[in-house]
């Protein structure tokens, strides 16, 4: 079938596949380096307990067959190895069926990880990586021209990511409609980056222009993805520029980079390079791709209905395999930044004069003099969840108590998630957590004090806790 393939998109496929492989590598590396403290057998939310509460139908994956920390590490590091092979282009040297199998392996491995990830893996970019990775299985190899149907399905994913995010903003916080959300966003976003302070201090009119441009890019431009070239390429290019702006202004794991990869798959690169000689698609491959397309279209009903619903939800998966999902971010914007600061003391008796020393996190704001760092696309899961904890202790109730208990034990795996442990020699005698309001300093304050943040004590989050049973019940309701 001549219509089945698009020779001119061979470079689009190549760029997309290599970018996706890099994102896979980042995701598996994040899992390998963080899982023991988060979901390991002695983790804050142990995967074996989750497996006992769920079944094959709701959470299929390899860990249904067996779970141990050693097996999880094997899965994560195997995912890293396969990702490196894909970055190197090994799939292009394999027969079509073998290349598809190679691309299926990281999808199965990462799906298995997400299924036992509990709260730590509840972010929208997990589903986005799985949905995109599933479609990548059917893009073919270097000997076969890219199938048109899969290219259109990738645009359908990109459309839902952008259009869904645009709609959730318009339907959510009225500051998006008044074009004022960026007066607050750079200061209150989950994990600011090194340039976020400077973005925050841009003039108000420019902030309003940014929001207006965002609405255009997310509500109007996505429709152009389904128009003929070169309009579709121009639309994808605008999305890339918008996502790069977001990369500069914050840390959103691999969300922005995966969106960029999806946009690049929609660009027609035929003017840049002539396609190499490619064979026609075998019949079995055509049948498989058509069947997968039909499946995705059927499953797309609920996400499509969600887009037009007044009760639109964001970052929701509608099937256990995460094949077609709903996306969106920042339907509402916080006006005030609250941070949970965790402190410990080695004094056996707590009194008004007790000296408390602060634990340092890698990404979330802590020391007011420390400029936030750039970590994305690497995902600091604990730091992100600390942002949610500051919004409401309900977000943290299942895991914050176990987290504190491990600090009281100087647990090696937990301390590896932190930047600074103030008790390297022996565990603290007590740990407490307090809520502070953080705001960016002004230019004058920065010059005078060297502080990027000004913070003010608000309330206790968890009163001083000695070693003993998990203190989850001691967190206060906000």
What do you see in this structure?
There is one protein chain. By secondary structure, the chain is an alpha+beta fold. 49% of the residues lie in helices and 9% in strands. It has 18 helices and eight strands. It has a four-stranded antiparallel sheet with strand order 4-3-7-8, covered by helices on one side. Strands 1-2 form a two-stranded antiparallel ribbon. α4 runs antiparallel to α5 (124-136), α6 packs across α10 (204-220) and α11 runs antiparallel to α12 (255-264). The longest helix is centred in the first third of the chain and has 29 residues, at 10-38.
Q: How do the SSEs run, as a string of H and E?
A: HHHHHHHHHHHHHHEEEEEHHHEEHE
Shape annotation: globular
Measured by DSSP, the beta-strand proportion falls in 5-15%
Based on secondary structure, the structural category is alpha+beta
Question: Numbering strands along the chain, what is their spatial order in the largest sheet?
Answer: 4-3-7-8
**Number of separate strands:** 8
Instruction: Tell me about the largest β-sheet.
Output: 4 strands, antiparallel
Range of helix content: 40-55%
Average pLDDT: 94
| Number of helices in the DSSP assignment | 18
Q: Over the alpha carbons, how many angstroms does the gyration radius reach?
A: 24 Å
- The rounded distance between the terminal residues' Cα atoms is 61 Å
Detail the poorly predicted runs.
473-478
